[in-house]
Amino acid sequence: MRILVVGSGGREHALAWRLARSPKVTELFAAPGNSGTATLATNLAVVETDIDGLVDAALDQSIDLMVVGPEIPLSMGLYDRLTSAGIPCFGPSRSAARLESSKSFARDVLDAADVAGPEYRVFRTASAALAYAEHRNRPLVVKADGLAAGKGVAMCANLEEAKTAIAMCMQDRVFGEAGEAVVIEEWLHGPEVSVFGFTDGENLSPVVAASDYKRVGEGDTGPNTGGMGSYGPPAFWDETIAERIRCEIMLPVIREMASRGAPYRGALYCGLMLTDDGPRVLEFNCRFGDPETQAIMPRLMSDPVEAMMACATGSLTDIDPVAWSNRPAVAVVMVSNGYPGSYETGLEIHGLDDNSSHGADSLVFHAGVQDAEDGGGRLLTSGGRVLACVGIGDDVEQARDHAYRRASEISFDGAYYRRDIADLRSAQTAPAR
Ligand code: AMP
Ligand code: GLY
What we know:
Layout: E1 2-7, H1 10-20, E2 27-32, E3 42-43, H2 51-60, E4 65-68, H3 71-75, H4 78-84, E5 89-90, H5 98-101, H6 103-112, E6 120-123, H7 126-136, E7 140-144, E8 153-156, H8 159-171, E9 182-186, E10 192-200, E11 208-217, E12 221-232, H9 239-259, E13 265-275, E14 278-285, H10 292-296, H11 304-313, E15 329-335, E16 348-349, E17 362-366, E18 369-371, E19 379-381, E20 385-392, H12 396-408
Parallel strand pairs: 1-2, 1-4, 2-3, 4-5
Antiparallel strand pairs: 6-9, 7-8, 7-9, 10-11, 10-13, 11-12, 12-15, 13-14, 15-20, 16-19, 17-20, 18-19
The protein binds adenosine monophosphate and glycine.
């Protein structure tokens, strides 16, 4: 099969890497891809927001299956356009992608499916939102309703912060249309986990979990980022909680989407907080997570093409159940100095060898890396999150060692990474109380 992976980050390199190992793949493409996918696939010069260009590329290259990494093309209707053109797509339709692209829609689906999330209210005017925040006068989370590139969530410890967040969203319109409505939630506490499964709109595969480290600093300090690392299975994870989340949270949501005439197919990502009162859904995303994918693709034992094709065109009940390895994987993200603020690019990266020249216990996935234009084979930084080093091992400790050993071999000016990813002594990895 001829497969095209859409996207250009570390997640897409990890997806391409896993797909490239499938005996079902005859030719792999990425659009636009990155320097990492270029070692496994043919990169096509089409960006992920160019829906016409992606459909044309799929037709030109006789693609049998499109695998969409990021949410933006899905929320722009890439699935719908490909389906009209007769091309199977792994990822949901535009209307099903609303589970991620509208937080108020997602909350409505959760209510209808009787699934618990934080207490919430939706507001379409700043005055009503402000009146509510004043009335509550306690820590709140203010969220822009639409897609805001991961920046639309403000954790507000007090009323002043809530007022600022509401004004930014609804008066200053820093998130544009995405801030036309806000969702205001109670601030919950507990360990967070990202849970993923494959779904065909009706059935859901066994799920896999990963912890995601969002803050830039060790000990979960400093500003939020696109993700500084991930690992799985998390220390507090077991089969009982996995089945509970699968059956009592994710499947009811899939059924609710089907009953609304918007069956959800593709990768379903459920972001949860394990509170003292039980699991609470913080968000649904319509794709795999980044950097969680870098730590879960090495654990996917089933054929990815078979699973993705079953989601796109068939039924998951026609294939063997998707299987995940219990061997832990740890992903450590190396970032540019200054990230998530401003940073320099174009710095030469040393020690970044191809994965094929290493053993099976470590991998590197490229994100903000580009080939130097002089054709000399040098690799340069081109983004804030530059790459992820992944270690695999018999236990978390060993997987961690493998990830950090690989990271220690790679360098560029100002390279930074957290040293406490998957450190079982840190608060984030502690079991739920
Ligand atoms: P979201 O995009 O909705 O998942 O929010 C991004 C991050 O904000 C989450 O991963 C949590 O760390 C945090 N967050 C979101 N909603 C809440 C909440 N109601 N209580 C506590 N933390 C939250
Ligand atoms: N790791 C968080 C996300 O992909 O949204």
